Amino acid sequence: MSEQFEPKIVAFVCNWCTYAGADLAGTSRTKYATNVSIIRFPCTGRIDFMLLMKAFENGADGIIVSGCHPNDCHYTSGNFHARRRWIVFRSLLDFMGFDTDRITFSWVSAAEGAKWAGLVDETTQRIREKGAFTDFKKLDCSTFEKISHDAITE
Amino acid sequence: MTPLQNKVAELFENGTISLMIGYKNAINKLAVPCFIDHATQVEQLIYTPECKGNLSVYLHKAEIKQAKKIGILANIATLRSLVQLTSENQLSDIEKTVITINAQNEVLVFDNMEKVEEYVQANFPEYTEEDKKLLEQLNSMTRAERWQYWSEQFAACVKCYACRAVCPMCYCSSCTVECNQPQWIKVSSETTGNLEWHTMRAMHLAGRCINCGECGRICPVGIPVHLLTAQMNLDIEKEFGSKTGFSCNSGYALNTFKPEDKEQFIK
Q1: pLDDT band at residue A151 using 50, 70 and 90 as cut-offs
Q2: Is residue B265 over pLDDT 80?
Q3: Residue extents of the structural domains in chain B
Q4: Distance (Å) from the C-alpha of residue A95 to the closest C-alpha of chain B?
């Protein structure tokens, strides 16, 4: 019997809006996909792009990045800075041929528990259809193949 | 004596500069950087189409900074990096005289950055035909083909970090690749780590790269790494309207924001 593929989703969320929104989803007893592991950050401005790369490298199949709506940042402008960074990072990933559909960017406020639940469900479903993220693993394999091939030809 | 050598000798004699960074001949018609501290040595100085290296990278070195008055021979890419470095407040502690040779073969001497900025804005360089063609080719590929292309390129990377050493914008005294608590970039040269290194390099240079193309030219295994930052610059100009190395007060695109910045992907 083949089991359904369950993706690992890592969510990078800001403390003030999305984390509170996810908390609201919990206290409201909203049911949503259990595939998500939430990592709480002080602000979306703190979410470095290298953290996303490391999540993928360590086996995440999909990522959610979420924070306060524009103009709602606890620190006034953290999400505006983050937005610019995401625009640039996303276009860099796309230029390198990385599947940017595996990263969901969103604004979820502390009052939007239902939006959060829907976002997690929708992302989980999308990644489930895409299957496991294997691009990085294949890269590592290609390195080893290259090494062994070189060793043989020597 | 060429007009350039005469001019530099004159600057040494009237005490405007005490150290000159320029190019000299090397084997195989190559031009290599040279450092001159006396008027008697100016005959080494050359300026040919082979003088491609971006000399502004040396302005970050402590030994160079010790010489109080520095003259620097600059091509247009170097002038642009001087403008960008000024906008990042990296050259405020150096007294510098910028020497360039324009298309009419005249030697121009700039004693302040406003004049350099004016010259750069009047002669703003385009992307080279070769780069334009490569970028167009990459952008017309499907996503999977691009992934294939870059993974093959990055598989060859030996992590020598020459792209970092040659870049005038990579001036941090400690780099993330040397950080091992946590280890952001793997030390060994394997493809995932190589990809992470090039992603990080491109992100840290996005909106700051001045398209001198030195990183791609210097790469010992021939990876066109300069295309990553070149594409980022195009995107940033399209999205935020800022040009790198254009104005001494422009700052850095990712260091600022506009509330009306537009995107389509944030749900």
Answers
A1: low
A2: yes
A3: 3-122, 129-255
A4: 7
Q: Is B19 helix (H, G, I), strand (E, B) or coil?
A: strand
Question: B21 forms bridges with which residues in the sheet?
Answer: B35, B72
Which residue, among B123, B38, B129, B2, has the nearest Cα to B74 in the 3D structure? B123
- The whole-angstrom distance between residue A44's C-alpha and the CA centroid of its chain comes to 13
What radius of gyration do chain B's Cα atoms show? 20
Structure tokens at A150: 């070189």
Q: For A85-101, how does the pLDDT look when each residue is reduced to its tens digit (9 = 90+)?
A: 999 999 999 999 999 99
**Residues B109-125 pLDDT 10s:** 998 899 999 999 999 98
Radius of gyration of chain A (CA): 18
3-state DSSP call for residue A63? strand
CATH number assigned to the domain with residue range A9-153, chosen from the 4 options 2.60.120, 3.30.70, 3.40.50, 3.30.450: 3.40.50
CA nearest to A87 within chain B: B263
Give the residue extent of every domain in chain A: 9-153
Q: Across the interface, do A143 and B155 touch by the CB < 8 Å criterion?
A: yes
Query: Does B15 contact A at CB distance below 8 Å?
Result: no
> What's the CA gap between B116 and B119, in Å, rounded?
5
Q: Taking CB atoms and an 8 Å limit, are B155 and A146 in contact across chains?
A: yes
From A73, A57, A61, select the one nearest A14 (Cα to Cα). Answer: A73
- Whether residues B236 and A88 touch (CB distance < 8 A) is answered with yes
Asked whether the beta carbons of residue A95 and residue B138 sit closer than 8 angstroms, the reply is yes
Do you know the residue count of chain A? 154
User: With the C-alpha atoms ordered A119, A125, A130, A132, is the resulting torsion angle positive or negative?
Assistant: positive
Question: What was the ipTM of the complex prediction?
Answer: 0.89
User: What pLDDT is recorded for position B71?
Assistant: 92
